């Protein structure tokens, strides 16, 4: 197996509304999780080198299913964004359950990419997610998104603050931008290390 993943081969596999519908893991998996408007679809599209493979929605919180993509025998899992206030409580509960059930299931969790907007302090839900990943000993990295909105100095300062708040080691935090592509090679490297 090569030491890199051919993202040119990326394709959509399937969408699931319930964890019970998802087939068992047959290959390495990388899961993407984060707040509704953190820019998850944009980062995944940048990773795949495609404009619209992962649907980018103008309405945050649109992804309410678990979507699977595949590139070079690695599965990429797009989990529903959490914490979007304009959805009904029942719908938010369904998402929480969907994400919880997913992480509780027997899967090959090679890497979890937890996305946090670099411009803001992590929300309670971000903290909950990181605590959960740490508590259950998942292999995860924190991907700070939307770095193009800040200067280099601000990026470094914010990254240091977020690392401290989330209590995550520096080497597990990557500053990224789907606009400029900063951090994407590093993200690919971490995915390859976890999956190949």
SSE series: EEHEEHEHEHEH
- Radius of gyration from the CA trace? 16 Å
Derived from helix and strand composition plus strand pairing, the structural class reads alpha/beta
Mean pLDDT score: 91
As a percent range, the share of helical residues equals: 25-40%
User: Which regions contain 5 or more consecutive residues with pLDDT less than 50?
Assistant: none
Approximate strand percentage: 15-25%
Largest sheet: 7 strands, mixed
Taking strands numbered 1, 2, ... along the chain, how are they ordered across the largest sheet?
1-3-4-2-5-6-7
Distance between the termini: 7 Å
Counted by DSSP, the helix tally is: 5
> What general form does the structure show?
globular
- How many beta strands in the DSSP annotation? 7
Outline the structure in words.
This protein has a 7-stranded mixed β-sheet, sandwiched between helices. The protein is of the alpha/beta class and 196 residues long. It contains 5 helices and 7 strands. A hairpin with a 2-residue loop joins β3 (66-71) and β4 (74-78). The chain is globular and about 45 Å long.
């Amino acid at each position: 197996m090569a030491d890199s993943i051919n993202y040119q081969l990326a394709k959509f596999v399937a969408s699931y509304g319930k964890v019970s519908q998802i087939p068992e893991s047959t290959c390495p998996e990388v899961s993407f999780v984060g707040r509704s408007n953190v820019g998850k679809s944009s980062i995944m599209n940048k990773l795949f080198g495609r404009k619209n493979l992962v649907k980018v929605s103008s309405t945050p919180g649109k992804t309410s299913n678990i979507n699977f993509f595949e590139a070079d025998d690695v599965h990429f899992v797009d989990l529903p964004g959490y914490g979007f206030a304009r959805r009904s409580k029942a719908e938010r509960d369904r998402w929480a359950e969907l994400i919880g059930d997913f992480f509780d299931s027997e899967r090959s969790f090679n890497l979890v990419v937890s996305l946090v907007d670099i411009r803001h302090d992590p929300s309670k839900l971000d903290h909950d997610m990181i605590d959960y990943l740490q508590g259950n000993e998942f292999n995860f990295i924190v991907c700070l998104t939307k770095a193009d909105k800040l200067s280099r100095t601000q990026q470094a300062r914010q990254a240091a603050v977020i690392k401290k708040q989330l209590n995550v080691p520096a080497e597990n935090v990557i500053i990224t931008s789907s606009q400029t592509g900063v951090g994407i090679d590093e993200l690919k490297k971490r995915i390859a290390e976890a999956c190949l």
